[in-house]
Amino acid sequence: MTTPPLTHQPRKLSAEGITKTFGGVTAVSDVSFEVIPGTIHALIGPNGAGKSTCFNVLTGVYRPTAGTVRLGDEMLTDCRPHEVAKLGVGRTFQNIALAERLSVRDNLMLARHRLTRAGFVATGLGLPGARREQRRHLERVREIAEFVGVTHLLSQPTGTLSYGDQKRVELARALCIEPSVLLLDEPVAGLNASESRHMARQILDIRDQLGVSVLLVEHDMGLVMSIADRVTVLDFGRLIAEGTPAHVQQDPAVLSAYLGTAAGATSGDQSSAPLTSSTTGSTP
Amino acid sequence: MSASPLALKVADVSARYGRAVSALDRAALEIPEGAVVAVLGNNGAGKTTLLRVMSGTHRLHGGEITGGQVFVGETPIGGLNPRKIVAHGVIQVPEGRRIFSRLTVEENLRVGGIRTRDRRSAAEARARVFDLFPILADRRHQRAGLMSGGEQQMLAIGRALMASPRVLLLDEPSLGLAPLVVEQIAHVITEINRQGTSVLLVEQNAEVALGVATHAYVLELGRVVLSGPASELRNSPAIRQLYLGDGAPLGDEVADGPRPVLAPWDFTAAARTRSRKAS
Amino acid sequence: MSENLTASRQWATRLLVSASVVVVLIAPLYLDQFWLQLGFFCFAAAVGTLGLNLLTGIAGLLSLAHGFFLAVGAYAYVFLAGGSEEGISGALVGAGLPSWLAAILAVGVAGFAGLLFSPISGRLRGIYLGVASLALIFIGQHVLHNYESVTGGFYGRDVPTLSLFGFTFAETDPVLMVLGVPFGREERLWYLGAAILLVAYVFARNIVAGRTGRAMQLVRDNEVAASSMGIDVRHYKASAFVLSSIYAGAAGVLIVLALGRAVPDYFGLALSISYLIMVVIGGLGSLPGSVAGAFFVVALPEVLNHYATSLPFLSQPGGDGVSAVQFSEYLYGLLVVAVILFIPRGLAGVFASVRGRAAPRSAPASDGAQLEPQSSERPHLPA
Amino acid sequence: MTYFVELLINGVSIGLIYALIAIGFTVIFKATQVLNFAQGSTLLLGAYVVVQLQERLGFYGAVLAGVAVAAAVAGAIEVFLVRRASTHEHISLAILTLGIDIALATELSRRIGSEVLSFADPWGNRTTAIGPFVVPQARLAAMVVCAVIAVAFFALLKYTSWGIAVRATAEDPEAAALMGINRHRVAATSWALAGGLAAVAGVFMGTAPSPGLTSTANVTALNAFPAAVIGGLDSPGGAVVGGLIVGVVQSLSGGYNDQVSFLGSPLSEVSGYVVMIMILLWRPSGLYGTREMTRV
Amino acid sequence: ASVTACSTKKDDGPGAESADGVKMGPGVTKSTIDLGVITDLSGPFATVGNALNQGAQIWFDELNTDGGICGREVKLDVRDSGYDLPKSISLYSEMEADVLGFQMILGSPQMAALGPKMEEDDIFVMPGSWASSLLGRKNGLIVGATFDLEMINGISWMMDEGLIKEGDTIGHIYLQGELGENALAGSTYAADQLGLTLVGQEVPPTATDVTSQVTTLKNKGVKAILLSTTPGQTASAAAADDASGLKVPLLGSNPSWAPQLLGTAAGDALKEHYYVAQSYQLFNADVPGAEKVREEYAAKYKDEPIAVIPWSYAAASAYSAILEKACENGDLTREGVLAAYPEITELDTGGIMPPLDFSDPSEPPTRSVLIARPEDNPLGGLKLVREAETSDLAADYPMPQG
Ligand SMILES: Nc1ncnc2c1ncn2[C@@H]1O[C@H](COP(=O)(O)OP(=O)(O)OP(=O)(O)O)[C@@H](O)[C@H]1O
Ligand SMILES: Nc1ncnc2c1ncn2[C@@H]1O[C@H](COP(=O)(O)OP(=O)(O)OP(=O)(O)O)[C@@H](O)[C@H]1O
Ligand SMILES: [Mg+2]
Ligand SMILES: [Mg+2]
Questions:
Q1: Contact E152, E391 (CB under 8 A)
Q2: Over the stretch B187-235, which tens digit does the pLDDT of each residue have?
Q3: How far apart are the C-alpha atoms of E332 and E318, rounded to whole Å?
Q4: CA A110, CA A104: separation in Å to the nearest integer?
């Protein structure tokens, strides 16, 4: 395998006609979309619509039944997950996937894997190069932890953290691979409103400060509508709408399949509250 | 609020993990018979721990009750085996779903109803679950682990309902659910409650929680810092700001406070050091 | 964590390390053959255990084949260093290389055997991998018994003396006297074993603390997450096997040097199992534990047997009742049970608590107060 | 051809005994995710008890007693040791059972010494001719018993509440506890059942054409490992298939060893393992084992 | 290794010089002679190990009551190796300095591993084995006919009896390892010389069921089966021989028999088909040595006797005869013992063994073998079929050199 170019050149992540079936179930069917560099792109849809499956196809965890995945000019379709990661695609998991027994610091250092070199021999012998490398990256890990707000947790085993903290560690870890594209699967699930808001702010910062493009799966419509630049909507594995948040929000197909606001708004029922949270519509 | 008989009562419970991590500090909480009680709180406030203590599973996490007592009706259940607590009708939908991923959907539901000896009431319970979540009926023979996150959440709730609970404890049921489904679940909770089950709802989605709840508690650092009728809390400015997302629009420097800045990683510098090292 | 505590702990560690270095250095002046040989077996076993712990404890790959890789190292050495000679059951061939070179190559051959296993080790998980690796033991035994011209079959082969730049690890050549003590085979091997154990330990410690060790641990805990972080899971699983077989190979070479003869019987299932026991008793994933576990398992029965005559409740050899060996078998079995029953992280856990190192789960209270994130946002509510 | 069939029959009859032991492995594994190395010495214990009691209780009574003792001991191992272990690491628990096995096997072989444990079974050395083939009746009995047991276990796990409780507990003990499952009882019963099975296997291992059991029978029981793995560690049905495969492969490779003498001898020792490796390369979780799922 | 005076290690002191005109080496004092025994009392060969020990103990107790050797009491330092190789090796290094020699070391891996060391240390040793690979050592004692000779004599006898005839096929089920290989060498030689076809079937020591091997042999149409197996495998073979309708005679090497087999389901089949070939007398034999052993055994031990006990008694007597000789020569050092060994040319063991001749260490001390078969009796469970004899074939057999 060739060493991937270690640049930060933002590149377009595109899915072209991807289909993924599991036995009889078609989870994703002929879906295409592009994540333009430097934007936040949201992928929304009802439960089971195939969003996480898309993520898994994009990151090489699943091989698509049909279709191609591209990063810039590079074909990712047949890449294995670690090869995709080495190309600078970072991700978080819907169901947290941390090494529970390792400390937060070690979990973050793990993500530096593609950026570091020391092999078995160099590490084993404790060569000065390996140690220098380790020190430099520890420094960077600290910076990222600070950015995400988990500095105080650095030496705790991740298994003992509360759900929300684990989510933050996941984000920090994804950032630690220094991605050019970041895939976030439900980053604010389990966070309360002010915490979500903080997270939203952070995602914007990631886009603006780091120039990273973000593909976001999220059910918190307030968040999606306020930070996404573009939205793709899936239903039953099919793409049913695509466009700006404002545009998608009006789409009747989206309303009936997913948002259900139409019903909520007419009845004025309080239980439809998540959509009426006050951040809705306050696009930056 | 102590007028009505209590379904469940947490009396000044303290709990900790290991020797040092204190997760609950004299937490007190009451679930009146037939009520829906919501618990709000930041990450790490101890909400999940509170539920673990109620269900007796804290010990599986290295936790320990250091004070106080939990009552179902008049019976103290603090420190009992989870199985015995279930026998008192206290059923929990744990955080993170915890469905049995290798079992089929149907088998998961059977596990939920495993204590129901009566076949007919088991069938009724199942029908009710399928009624509430039709997708589960469609997927009844699918391995649960292969379902989407939301589907799994529905299954987790369905599984708990199979036990015909007297008190249902829900730990973040809206986690990862699409708005429509969240609505649906809110309805389901109301519906379950109407059918006679008292509910304790731990939720980050305060809108939903305060929407369906009659009472609410706010937990902070393992302590109850605020409680009252849900409608009252809804109008508390602090609650509105913290849990309902009221306030300044995103990007407001004052509201968000000074934010740490992260510079992009300098790949070329990293490459330079490496080549210097190599030469 | 207070600075003082850390500092004093560091001092304690340093003191412990220097004390053991001194003990290891002067021991041959005082100990007789029996103890030196036992010590050497312990050193050698500890090297092997470190390797298995890297594999099973750190990378999470269960292997019942460690004994096989020991055999590969041992026999590779015997073959590479041995000449063509007449054995008990026929002519034997050997490469006749200088013994030091043979020893190094043998370790490499063992590593290569680990690599050959990678199609299997890369695909299987957990217990499946464990039982699959069990096959290697039986295949190994089969080969050792049948490939007689190299292995000597059932009778095995004599082990050539190791010599390094004219210095042999044997009774003489050169004759060596230190402080009036003749340094024979056992004394020399003692230092060799100690030195190799030291190197093996430091290497393993660096691995675990470094990039590669972390990667192995994530592979253990969550393969998908690992690969999504850019870690080539198959590569790491294979590497872990190679690494551990290198350790096993080194242990194998050392052990046959002490045994004087490589016989297939020794490298059976029981050997693999005893290595697993050493790892678990010492503490999965703990390197000092590995060393402790190896010393414990190797030395316990020997020491018991040594002092058996002074244990009144044991029957004398040939008598009815429980003999010393049986007794030490019971004790061995029951201690394994007891350790797992009562000591969560093996002997390593005991050290840790003796040295006051807090268990990772129970973080100190001062940290507990900080667990609340974003303290600036804490609600100020009327109580 | 007759020779082939004879070998086949022999392989099948040995394979079924492996299957009985392997079912025990799978049941324990399914319920508690522990690989029970003590199964071999439990088998020996059961057989020992049967031999000790058969004069007093008669063969069937003694078998019942042996099964009961083995079940009780296996159950007790779970209740008093495995459950109370300070760790839940599966590897450590497997080693725990190894420790038990070492102690138990040492004691049993001390007691048994060079004795050959032979059973006063009703089949004795009698044989039945099936066409040109002569099969010991004891092996026919083994076949029937094994088939019944395998089917029973399959049904038990698949359809009864106990079976579902076993599987649920295996996967997530905490969630199972939250559903009111008595996971302790589930674990103890599975171990006890497996212990009883081992005793039955021990008896059939010692009846005709085998002259009896020696104190090394627990080593032979190791052959059930590849059997259980070939079938898939959590599949009792698979254990039967795996047992048959191992038995037949061993018998055939032994019988035709001359034809492939370049592979060395005795082949029967390794052939089962070689076949296991090949099957695992093709199906990493055995023929019928639950595939490890990765859903992120 | 000897140690100098100013060493930090404790000084064992080299063997003191003559007190009664006898040179003394390690393990010898004015009143005692210490001999080591490394055997298996708890491992896979515990039964044999125990029996060997009992026989030797009976001999030395008797010897010591009669005044010992050179006026010195002979003491056995018996250690249990559990058949574990490293344990045996550390036991050796633990004991070596304190003993004159090793009365017994059990296990051929052990012997193979310790051989060079013992040669270096001038240790005289008796291995618990009859393998011809052990011949040719100046420091090793084999008492009796080797495994290959047992088979050759046994096959000759079967020919003589008409149990098999020229042109027949015979099978040989043999253990992996020393016993099997050595016996197979003998049977191969005999088959070659006598115009028989030999079919070998190797089995591992752990196998308990040899039915499939018997099936294979049946398929080859064998007229007899040789068994160099464990007793359990012998019973299994007999049962299979009978049950499959093959019903051919079985001839076993001496370790293939144990009296306990009579109590198994295979007992009848064994009585009908099985013979054993060995060079030492049966436990219930009518010779003075065996009578003595029976008497003492009954007085000392309660277990059912094992066939090999008379042998170990005789073998111990051979070892002491060599020590006696060394004493006569006035040299009870290790070198003295080595020198005395080949001087023994005709040793009588009370009739237990045929006359033994140690003058050529590369030759077994006897080539005679007797034939016995199972019988219900509490004393070893065997009855004599034919007295010890050397067949012509065995007499001409060129011994392989180890
Ligand atoms: N490995 C798999 N095997 C079989 N079916 C699968 C697998 N992975 C996903 N599916 C199915 O594909 C569909 C899409 O699942 P996916 O996880 O992509 O949904 P999602 O959009 O992420 O939903 P959610 O918002 O609830 O997380 C679901 O119906 C699920 O059951
Ligand atoms: N198993 C454990 N071991 C040690 N500490 C733990 C453990 N589980 C939780 N904690 C700690 O206990 C405190 C309370 O955690 P808990 O999970 O109850 O919070 P929570 O309110 O449910 O948070 P979230 O909203 O993020 O789920 C946290 O500080 C957490 O780090
Ligand atoms: Mg999803
Ligand atoms: Mg929680």
A1: yes
A2: 888 988 888 889 999 988 888 888 899 999 999 888 898 888 988 888 8
A3: 16
A4: 10
Ligand 3 centroid distance, CA of A188 (Å)? 13
Alpha carbon distances (Å) from E237 to C58, C157, D117, E154, E228: 48, 33, 16, 18, 11
Nearest CA to ligand 2 atom 24: B43
pLDDT (tens digit per residue) in C126-158: 888 888 898 999 999 999 988 888 888 877 888
User: Which chains border B (3 or more CB–CB pairs < 8 Å)?
Assistant: A, C, D
User: Which residues in chain B touch residue C361, judged by CB atoms under 8 angstroms apart?
Assistant: 17-18, 62
pLDDT band, residue C325 (cuts 50/70/90):
confident
Which residues have any ligand 2 atom within 6 Å of their CB?
A 160-164, 190; B 17-18, 21, 23, 41, 43-49, 61-62, 95; C 361, 371
CATH number, domain D2-282, options 1.10.3470, 1.10.1750, 1.20.950, 3.30.70: 1.10.3470
Substitution target from D174, D295, D296 for chain A, most A beta carbons within 10 A: D296
> Per the CB < 8 Å rule, is D214 touching E232?
yes
Two structure tokens written together for E145 = 């006919």
* Cβ–Cβ pairs < 8 A, chains A and C: 133
Sorted by where each begins, the domain ranges of chain D are 2-282
Structural domains for chain A:
1-88+179-284 (3.40.50.300), 99-177 (no CATH)
Q: Which domain holds residue B258?
A: 6-89+167-174+195-278
Cross-chain residue pair A95–D296, CB shorter than 8 Å: yes
CA distance C260 to E355: 36
Mean pLDDT value across residues D246-252: 92
Q: Which two tokens stand for residue A61?
A: 């965890």
Residue whose pair of structure tokens reads 């090999």 in the numeric block:
E308
Which bound ligand lies closest to the C-alpha atom of A51?
1
**Which H/E stretch holds residue E200?**
strand E197-203
Is residue B31 in some structural domain? Answer: yes
Specify if B112 maps to a domain.
no
Q: Into how many domains does chain B fold? A: 1
Element (H, E) at A104: helix A104-111
Distance B44 CA to ligand 2 centre (A): 5
Residue C373 and residue A165: Cβ atoms within 8 Å? yes
Strands of A213-217's sheet, edge to edge? Answer: A89-91, A181-185, A213-217, A40-44, A230-235, A238-243
Among C127, C138, C223, the residue with its CB nearest the CB of D269 is: C138
| Residue B179: inside a domain | no
Task: Nearest chain B residue to C381 by CA: give it.
Answer: B238
SS3 D245: helix
The verdict on a CB contact (< 8 Å) between B55 and D178 is yes
Question: Helices (H) and strands (E) in chain A — how many of each?
Answer: 11, 10
Token pair in block for residue E265: 């389901």
CATH number of the structural domain spanning residue B84 = 3.40.50.300
pTM score, whole prediction: 0.85
Hey, which residues does A18 pair with through a beta bridge? A31
Chains that touch C (3 or more CB pairs under 8 A): A, B, D, E
**DSSP element (H, E) containing D229:** helix D224-231
Tell me how far CA of residue B5 lies from CA of B35, B217, E266, in angstroms.
10, 18, 78
Distance from CA of A176 to the nearest CA of C (A): 9
Give how far A222 is from chain C: nearest CA, Å.
20
Closest ligand 2 atom, residue B45 Cα: 21
How far apart CA A225 and CA A283 sit, in angstroms, is 7
Instruction: Provide the ipTM.
Output: 0.84
Phi and psi of B110, rounded to 5°?
-65, -40
Residue in D280, D160, D168, D161 with CA at minimum distance from that of residue D228: D280
**Coil, strand, or helix at residue D135?**
strand
Residue B132 lies in a domain: no
